[in-house]
Amino acid sequence: MVAYKGKTAGNLRQYIKTKPDKWGFKLFSRASADGFIHDMVLYQGKTTLEGHGVPLTPEQQAMGATSQIVSVLASTMSSPSTTAMFADNFFTSLELLRYLRDQNCRYTGTSSDNRIGKPPLKSIKEMEKKAVPRGTCDYIMSDDGILAVRWKDNITVSLLSTDMGVEPMSSVIRYCSETKTKEPVSCPDVTRPYNANMGGLIRVTCWSTSYRTPMKSKRWYMRMFAYVIDVSRRTARPLV
């Protein structure tokens, strides 16, 4: 979100109560793990993708809105066949994974239970029973190469991937409220690169919020211009 409380931007201004900046411009971005933004799409309602300059194929037009956005951001990558994409459950769906797989682009993401299809996995309700220990993992591979994983951590997490597998199993350290100590918890291998590569946009957001360009104007596009400056400064700044 690019913070903006003015009322001159019309429908471009959005409200999302879960964001630190609740009012502003909503951006969909593709960033690398080190915090560099490579492409972005400004949310504009039904005309969101028209201003991006990438025509949609018939296959993309048949996809859902969030899948279209990811597919468009992926289409501007210079080497999709050597790139792995990671996203959260707002974007992940079976149709997206199948599309990106056909484009030779690997993908891993958490997924909502209603977007994972109906694989023969233990249900979330069953996984969250106290009798099921933390670290329990259930998984299946589809005939077309999509891995579906359900893993019990602090909460039960569902993941889809065309990139990573379950083996070798590793472990993460979690606090146990019963023993009041930190204990190792078994986890599938697919969670390791997901956790390592999902922080790129968080880095950008934290830095641009902390070092925001001071600019007051009634013209809404000046706030967007200031954000571009902030992102450019972040790109030019050496990582520490």
Describe it for me?
The mean pLDDT is 84. The radius of gyration is 20 Å and the shape is globular. 26% of the residues lie in helices and 25% in strands. With 240 residues, the chain is an alpha+beta fold. It has seven helices and twelve strands. Helix 2 (65-75) runs parallel beside helix 3 (94-102). The longest helix has 17 residues, at 220-236. The strands form four sheets. A five-stranded mixed beta sheet has the order 6-7-10-9-8, sandwiched between helices. The chain folds into two domains: 1-76 and 199-240, no CATH class; 77-190, no CATH class. It has helices at residues 58-61, 65-75, 94-102, 124-127, 191-197, 200-210, 220-236; strands at 2-3, 13-15, 23-25, 27-31, 37-42, 84-87, 106-110, 137-141, 147-152, 156-161, 170-176, 181-187.
Describe the structure concisely for a colleague:
By secondary structure, the chain is α+β, with helices and mostly antiparallel strands. It has 7 helices and 12 strands.
Task: Write the SSE topology.
Blueprint: E1 2-3, E2 13-15, E3 23-25, E4 27-31, E5 37-42, H1 58-61, H2 65-75, E6 84-87, H3 94-102, E7 106-110, H4 124-127, E8 137-141, E9 147-152, E10 156-161, E11 170-176, E12 181-187, H5 191-197, H6 200-210, H7 220-236
Parallel strand pairs: 6-7
Antiparallel strand pairs: 1-3, 2-3, 4-5, 7-10, 8-9, 9-10, 11-12
Helix pairs in contact: 2-3
The coarse overall form would be globular
Please tally the β strands and state the result.
Answer: 12
Radius of gyration: 20 Å
Compute the average pLDDT: 84
Unreliable residue stretches: none
State the helical fraction: 25-40%
What fraction of the residues are assigned to beta strands by DSSP?
Answer: 15-25%
